[in-house]
Amino acid sequence: MLAGMTSTQWEEWKEYMRVEPFEEERMDQRFGHLAAIFLNRYRKRGTKALSMEEATLRFGDTPVAESAVKPMRKSWQAMKAFAKTLVMGE
């Protein structure tokens, strides 16, 4: 298929994929949306809600939004309390 394609056709396909992502990228977007819904439901009061882009996992050379890169430092006590909340369903 690629051998018989002109450069113009190739550019049109690339633009189409940008507008309508193919399977794996679209699935990543769906799961990012679900993750954002879940994370925003259980976020700490007063904290900023996450966007779908911030909740989507990034692979390889995919650019990451500046707002999505935040170093998180938690004590082991905070992590234990969070895990307990997940298990106990409080």
Set out the fold topology:
Blueprint: H1 7-19, H2 23-41, H3 52-55, H4 76-88
Main sheet makeup: none
Secondary-structure-based class equals mainly alpha
DSSP summary, beta strand count: 0
What's the end-to-end separation, in Å? 55 Å
Give, in order, the helices and strands: HHHH
Question: Number of DSSP helices?
Answer: 4
* Unreliable residue stretches: none
Shape: elongated
Strand content: under 5%
Mean pLDDT rating: 77
- Overall helicity: 40-55%
- Taken together, the total number of domains comes to 1
Rg: 19 Å
Overview in brief:
The protein is mostly helical and 90 residues long. The chain contains four helices and no strands. It has one domain.
Describe the overall structure.
With 90 residues, the protein is mainly alpha-helical. It has one domain (2-88). It has four helices and no strands. The longest helix is centred in the middle third of the chain and has 19 residues, at 23-41. The mean pLDDT is 77.
For the structure shown, list the relevant keywords:
mainly alpha, 54% helix
